[in-house]
Amino acid sequence: MATASATVLTLISGTAAQADEPAPEPSATYTPTTEPAQDDVDKEPSNPVIADYKGRKINLAETWEGATSCTELPNGEVHCYDTDEEASADPALAEESRLKTPQVDREARDPRRCIPDYWCLYEHADYKGKILRFSADGKKRLKDWGMNNKLSSVFYRVRSWSLNYGDARVIDWRSWPVSDRERQFSAGSLGHPARYPNFKRLDYPGGGNWNDKVDVFEVRRA
Ligand SMILES: [Ca+2]
C-alpha cells in the first residue's frame, strides 16, 4: 500500500512537469477522492486542559459544559465563562487588557468578544460560537482544549506591541505518507488587526480549505 502510494505520487509529479503532453488516462489505482478530507491523527501526547468554571474544575478535552469562552491567563490558569462581560472583567487578566477592552480604539467591525493581545479562536465563521483566547507562547494541541477540527475564524488585535509581536501558525496533522499541513497567520500591525473571518476562504494545500481542520495552534513570539 505504501509503496503503491509513493509510486503514484512520483508518476503524478512527472506528469505535471510535461504540461504540453496529452493527459494520460488516470491510473486505476489513483483515486484521490479516497484521501480523507481530514483525519484524526495525534502526534503529541494528550494533556487535557483543566479549567476553572463556576467555582469548579472542568476538563475541556471532555466538555465545556455551558461555557461560551475560555481564556489562558498570564498566571497559567485557564478560566471559562458564561458571558463575555465576565471574560473581559476577569481579575486574573493583566490590568491593561482588562481596562482597555471597553475603550474606543477599536473598529465597529471588530468582534466584540475578543480581548486585546489575545489570539481569539472561534468555533464558527464570522467570529461566532465558542471562543478560546490564547496569549502565551507555544503550541496548543486543540484536542486538549476541546476545539480539535472545529476552528473556523481567528481575530487578533495587538495593543502592547513590544510584548506581542511575532505571529502564529496552524497545523493539521496528517497520516503518513501525507505530510502535515501548515499555515502562517500574521499578527497584523498597529492599527491593522489580524482578521481571518472565514477559514472556508483559506486555501488548504492540495485543495479544499482550512475550515474545521486545525489540530494545533501555535503562538510564536518572535
Ligand atoms: Ca485535523
Quick structural summary:
This protein is α+β, with helices and mostly antiparallel strands and 222 residues long. The chain has four helices and twelve strands; from the N terminus they run H-E-E-E-E-H-H-E-E-E-E-H-E-E-E-E.
- Can you write the helix and strand succession as a string? HEEEEHHEEEEHEEEE
Number of strands: 12
Query: Percent of residues in beta strands?
Result: 25-35%
Structural class: alpha+beta
Mean pLDDT: 83
Identify low-pLDDT runs.
1-24, 26-35
The radius of gyration computed from the alpha-carbon positions, rounded to a whole number of angstroms, is: 20 Å
What does this protein look like?
With 222 residues, the chain is α+β, with helices and mostly antiparallel strands. The protein has a single domain, classed as Crystallins (Gamma-B Crystallin, domain 1). The protein contains four helices and twelve strands. The strands form three sheets. A six-stranded mixed beta sheet has the order 4-3-6-5-8-11. It has a four-stranded antiparallel beta sheet with strand order 7-12-9-10, with no helix packed on it. It has a two-stranded antiparallel ribbon with strand order 1-2. Bound molecules: calcium ion (CA). Residues 38, 149, 172, 213, 215 line the site of calcium ion.
